[in-house]
Design brief:
Layout lengths: L2 E8 L1 H5 L3 H10 L3 E5 L6 H7 L9 H8 L5 E8 L1 H9 L12 H5 L8 E2 L4 H11 L10
Antiparallel strand pairs: 1-3, 1-4, 2-3
Helix pairs in contact: 3-4
The protein binds guanosine-5'-diphosphate.
């Protein structure tokens, strides 16, 4: 299996609910390497750019408002099969449908405020990590 990158974002609800540590513990227990991690806040314009693919969706405005409503923690992750493994660990978009033991089942509060982001393809993993981190900021102790 190939080594892949994926972008985790601990969303504003995850930060507000004091789940940064819990989520990072689950990331490390699952064997992901953390290449970069920062506490930051994004403007509505930057949130809109990041979620540009959802521009036509009815929830776009709500999503942009939410993602710019407070601090977030982008985390650049790497491991074999990272895209699928991270999506399995975070669970379904809607926590009501998320499997037992997943991050969203444990920490998400609704379909919109669902604790974490995960990239949905190998290409998006690379691009989304680059959206938040310069290559020179990433640390690889593999
Ligand atoms: P993901 O890949 O599981 O994060 O889900 P999507 O790519 O379908 O949606 C991106 C993000 O938009 C989700 O993680 C939610 O934060 C948000 N979102 C998706 N569907 C809804 C919805 O019906 N209402 C609201 N408010 N937000 C939504």
């Amino acid at each position: 299996m190939a080594i892949e990158r994926t972008l985790c974002i601990i969303k504003p609800d995850g930060v507000r609910n004091q789940n940064i540590g819990n989520i990072v513990a689950m990331i490390q227990a699952a064997g992901f390497r953390i290449l970069g991690l920062k506490l930051t806040r994004i403007s509505p314009a930057v949130a809109g750019e990041f979620y540009g693919v959802h521009k036509e969706r009815p929830f776009y405005g709500e999503l942009v408002n939410f993602m710019s409503s407070g601090a977030i923690v982008p985390i650049a992750l790497e491991k074999e099969n990272a895209i699928a493994d991270w999506r399995a660990l975070i669970g379904s978009t809607d926590p009501a449908e998320a499997a037992e033991g997943t991050i969203r089942k444990k920490y998400a509060t609704s379909k919109g405020e669902n604790a974490v982001h995960g990239s949905d393809s190998v290409e998006n993993g690379i691009n989304e990590v680059a959206f938040f981190f310069a290559e020179s900021e990433l640390i690889n102790n593999a």
